[in-house]
Amino acid sequence: MMVGQTGSLLVLTLLSYWAGYRLYQRIPHMLMSPVFTSTLIVIGVLWLSHTDYQTYQMANKPLTWLLGPAQVAMAVPLFRGWKLLKKHLSSVLTGVCGGTVSGMLTATLMGKILHLSTVTILSLAPKSATTPVAMMTSQAVGGVPELAAFFAVFTGILGVVAGPVILRWMGVRNILFKGLALGTAGQMIGAARASKWGDAAAAMGIVGMSVTALLIGLFTPLLILFLI
Amino acid sequence: MNGKKPPVWFVTVEILILFLVFLLGDAVVRLMKWPIPLGLLGMGILFILLATDKVRVHLFEVSSRFFVRHIVLLLLPAIVGVIRFWPVLKKEGWKLGLILVVSTIAVLVAMAGIARITKAKGEE
Predict the structure, then answer these.
(1) Out of B64, B72, B88, closest to residue A120 by CB
(2) For A109, left (φ over 0), alpha (ψ -120 to 50), or beta?
(3) What's the whole-number mean pLDDT along residues A207-215?
(4) A77: Cβ–Cβ under 8 A, 6 or more apart, which residues?
């Protein structure tokens, strides 16, 4: 019986994702992303069938395990953008470092000022990294991986909504830099949006995303010293 | 892609190799007790293998594209996990929303500012 339940909960995730994915192909709008629709379907089914999250999480371990290889696979698009990265190394590093540190400090300081718990702040801090890295980072420093995933996904969406507007408003015209900024602010979702400006911008988006993930992985442990 | 479609089992092998690289990075991180997130070191290892021509990039063509396109599927269990923190989100929701918005704007404004300064130095 237990095996049947485990299997069906895994199938639930796959089916919900498939339904959400098809829906998104029909209506390609930010708010129709599987992030929202598939999540709502799963939560709805769990609620109706009185399944607790623990059981669901255990059943879906295989998918969570795949996050490791998924993060490793990010080396491939980064390698493709390597030529561009080498060419613009100094401006890439300055830009991504400045952007990432500003974002992390802003989030941490605001969290302190608004009296959020340290656990919540540690789940917020790595939100600009790719979602798997945000999860693993928060876990390493004592945050909550699920919250970190939630914040990271939301940050990606915000980055895509606000990014093009702010960059235009601040007079940034260089397409490569715009791609880099979207990848830095909105990781994977941002990098995907950057591809609208062409292949070079998309490659820079991937570069921004990867460098940000690396920096956050290295900087977050230092934040703990600052928080305690 | 040179028009040849790799067989399905090939993807499984790709993912297994990626998994091994991940475990290798994981083992190093645990041994060294580095507080860096798992996965990043694995990504670094694979990147170095690619950059030094030890591994051909097209070996991971299919799996890396699959992961980029369907990352949400792998994240679903974690995102659904947010229901456990519903009380936190309900209580602190406006604060969290404000922080997410402001810090995202901070990233973008900082980068745009840096772009202007470096442009002034004649970098394009």
Answers:
(1) B88
(2) alpha
(3) 89
(4) A203, A206, A210, B64, B68
CB neighbourhood size of B83 (10 A): 17
Between B19, B40, B115, which is nearest A177 by CB? B115
| Rg, C-alpha atoms of chain A | 19
pLDDT at B4: 58
pLDDT tens, position by position, A19-49: 999 999 998 887 788 888 999 999 999 999 9
- Asked whether the beta carbons of residue A127 and residue B124 sit closer than 8 angstroms, the reply is no
Tokens, residue B50: 């690619």
User: CB–CB of B110 and A67 under 8 A?
Assistant: no
A to B CB pairs, distance under 8 Å: 292
**Model pTM?**
0.84
B40-65 pLDDT per residue, tens: 888 888 988 988 888 787 788 888 88
Pick the residue of B11, B98, B104 with the most A CBs within 10 A to test the interface with A by mutation: B104
Which residue type does A7 have?
Answer: G
Q: What is the spatial distance between Cα B25 and Cα A183, in angstroms, rounded to a whole number?
A: 24
- Between B40, B42, B74, which is nearest A63 by CB? B74
